[in-house]
Amino acid sequence: MPYVNVRVEGGVTVVRLCRGKVNALNEPTIDELKDRFREIEADEAVRAVVFSGEGKFFSFGFDIPGFLGHTKPDFSRFLTKFTDLYTYLFTYPKPVVAALNGHTVAVGLMLALACDRRFMAAGKGKAALNELAFGSSVFAGSVEMLRFAVGNRNAEEILYTGAMYLPEEALRLGLVDEVCPGEELLGKAMAAARELGEKNQPAFQSIKRLMRDPVAEEMRRRESASIGEFVDIWYSEATWRNLQEIGIR
Hints:
The chain has a single domain (4-197), classed as 2-enoyl-CoA Hydratase, Chain A, domain 1, CATH 3.90.226.10. The relative contact order is 0.16. It has a 6-stranded mixed beta sheet with strand order 1-2-3-5-7-9, sandwiched between helices. Strands 4-6-8 form a 3-stranded parallel beta sheet, covered by helices on one side. The chain is built from 9 helices and 9 strands. It is globular, with a radius of gyration of 17 Å. The chain has helices spanning 27-42, 64-67, 72-90, 107-113, 140-161, 167-173, 182-197, 201-234, 237-244; strands spanning 4-9, 12-17, 48-53, 57-59, 96-100, 103-105, 117-121, 127-128, 178-180. By secondary structure, the chain is α/β, with parallel strands linked by helices. Helix 1 (27-42) runs parallel beside helix 3 (72-90), helix 3 (72-90) packs antiparallel against helix 8 and helix 5 crosses helix 8.
């Protein structure tokens, strides 16, 4: 069963996560996302991408119960795949606009931060890098993307508190660029994607590389060590107890 739905509309491809109620990320979903984005990159007819989710969640984050049986080497291998994916999206040659249809949590927000623009539906959906709340760390690449989006001071607030932000609070912090009614979300994101897609593409790609490649170089330089540290904390006794209490319905 596919976990990623792809639809093309007038030169814009809409990529939707569709894995259960909360769009929790596991290894097959990460592999499928990478494959679909590579196919879109190679399609010259596609000028831009909208990245969204089905239902009330963009993504809950990792499918934590599904990873509890992983060994440290297997989990480290998966995390390398995941961080490679968001680095790929962060430097993607075509415009990528996130349409955050609901809760965008933990590594779900990391994927959103890799996009060029982020629109979020108004309402009760929350955005968070809440790893500290259950005793986990984050990745070097996610910190660099967060700083790129919101600046150092706001990044500290977001990471040190682990708070769950309503859309208007996420807008204040720079986590999203615009909040709009849910029924307008896809249309707004599509319009922004088309606007970016209509730019001179070699010029757009050049400017994006100039802005993001130095950040991506730092992400790659520090990522492997941060994954090792993340895994050590993840498998520590206190964090492991917390993880076993997290359920996905």
